[in-house]
Amino acid sequence: MSETQKENPYSSTVLLPKTDFPMKADLAKREPAQIQAWKSGQIFRKMKEHRKGKKEFVLHDGPPYANGNFHLGHSLNKILKDTIVKSKSLAGYYADMIPGWDCHGLPIEVQVLKNLGKKARETGPEELRQLCRNYAEEFVGKQSEDLSRFLCFWEEGRIYKTMSPDFEARIVEVFGELFQKGYVYRGKKPVYWSIDLATAHAEAEIEYYPHVSPSIYVKFPVIGAPNRFCLIWTTTPWTLPANLAICFNKKIEYSIFKTEAGEELILADGLAESVTNATGVSLNKLKPISSDELAALKFQHPFIDRVSIPLFGDHVTLDAGTGCVHTAPGHGQDDYKVGLAAGLEPFSPVDDYGRYTDEFPLMQGKKVFDANPEIVQLLKDKGMLLHYSEFEHSYPHSWRSKKPLIFRATPQWFFQMDFNELREKSLSAIDGIQWVPS
What we know:
By secondary structure, the chain is an alpha/beta fold. It is built from 12 helices and 17 strands. The chain folds into 2 domains: 32-180, HUPs (Rossmann fold), CATH 3.40.50; 205-415, Isoleucyl-tRNA Synthetase, domain 2 (Alpha-Beta Complex). InterPro entries: aa-tRNA-synth_I_CS (IPR001412), aa-tRNA-synth_Ia (IPR002300), Ile-tRNA-ligase (IPR002301), Ile-tRNA_ligase (IPR050081), Rossmann-like_a/b/a_fold (IPR014729), Val/Leu/Ile-tRNA-synth_edit (IPR009008).
């Protein structure tokens, strides 16, 4: 009896399966050989050839950005897709997937600009585009290597990139066709805008964080009625230079109230108490004012030589404020809609980087958030500020820069879903698709 058996009398009763698999992974040596065997064997191509003529299963690979190495989320995505393709192939399908990469958009540009550092200001647009293309190519290569390391089913060189000339040409071709058929138009409309990145943001690109905003009650003089004002409330003083109207609701009752200082203020009856609580200004109701009377009024802008007109909309509620809504069609969705119906242009005296343009010469070049205190001071100097305070609330921020967004009218391309019954056709097509999960 050996020494081992003496020490381990039960070892002969432990029956372990025998395997050719090594006890240690030793990936540094074995992985390159595995990858080479996978490539040289062309297993994916051979499996597809074997399944020719069978029922097709094609998995569309929604492309990741070519702006960095794969992280855990990318890896999970690719491995799950690969598992589906392999399982379908084993089930007898002609299964296929072509990996793709999104080579456009801000993630790549932002990273390139970050890498350039101070040199970014000296880099022209053409050079920047080429640097972005080079950067994208680099990470298409690196991410392709990761696909090989995952032993995914894909054929090297058989990929798609959104920056490929043929791919871009097809996009332009389809866009041109849509434009010629009348589905696409160019227009100015308020959108969420990043003044740090100088670009529009979709709803999905917005994150909400706590933000401290000014809360101001502003008086708009009623033209032809000395000492009478329409009282509005806003948390965005910087949008006041773009004010073109004051919006009311015909379903809400309004009155003229008198303050202890002798001023007459127009506001909603249902908000008089909350206005007093917020401002500390006592209000004594003088008389009601009808929608017809409101419609006949004109208001003097508090610090610009311009007339603001009365409008009406159902978006005006008694939830907060005064029931008289400061309306800047170039800086709000509801403002835009009521302004459009009244024939008002979506006026926005703000450039791509959030600076006032020469359309507001008083503060030309000033960034809008920096201008808030100056707007407030201007209102004080003009005697048009009833009350000022600050409050913290949830505010939209860019998911990329983590900085606050603004709402700003810019020229955009729009797709008309209601043209040629496209909405109905799309909904009908959706009904014919099997959704998983349903």
